[in-house]
Amino acid sequence: MAAGATIHTFDLTISDVDRGVYESVSLRAARHPSETEQFLVTRVLAYALEYVEGIAFSEGISTTKNEPAVLVRDATGSITGWIEIGAPDAERLHYGSKLADRTVVYTHRDPVKIAALWTGKKIHRGDEIELRSFDDGFIDQVAGALGRRSELTVSLIESRVYVELDGQSFQSELHSQPAI
Description:
Elements: E1 6-16, E2 21-31, H1 37-49, E3 55-57, E4 70-73, E5 79-85, H2 90-99, E6 102-106, H3 111-118, E7 130-133, H4 138-144, E8 149-157, E9 160-165, E10 168-173, E11 175-178
Parallel strand pairs: 1-8, 5-6, 6-7
Antiparallel strand pairs: 1-2, 3-4, 4-5, 7-11, 8-9, 9-10
Helix pairs in contact: 1-4
C-alpha cells in the first residue's frame, strides 16, 4: 500500500444477472494520491462487473510490477484476466493480452478517443480486447457520492448497470465495443 493512500472500504453486493453471478464481499481499495475518484470508481465497478473466483486488485501505481489495475488468476496462479482502467497504452494491452486469456479495458473517458489511441498499433489479439464504458456523467455522479466506508450494490441486467451507493441510486448502459 502506498504512503499517503486513502483506503476505501466497500461492503459490496454483486448481482450480475447477465452472467449468473451473485456475491457479497468486503472490498478494500487503496486510492493513491495521484488517482482520481473517477478512476477509483471505475476500478471498483470493473472489479464487480468482472467478478470471478481469483479476481484481485493489483499492487497498483506504487509498484514496479507490470500489472493491470485488476487481474484474475486461476488456482495455479496463472493470469486468466487482464483488466485495465482508463487509457492504457498499446504496449500494455499487447503485453497483457499475451499473458491472459481475456483482456478488457474499462474507461471513464470518451471510448472513441481511447480506441483512437490504439489505431494502427501492434496489439496481440487486439480484435478480441473489449473496451467498456458508461453513459456520460455516470462515473462522476457515483464518484460524487463516494465515502471512505460505503455500502455498494452493483447489479447488471441486460447490459444495464444499476448502482446503489449509501442509499443513492445511479444507472447507466454498459457500452461495449472492440478495442480496435
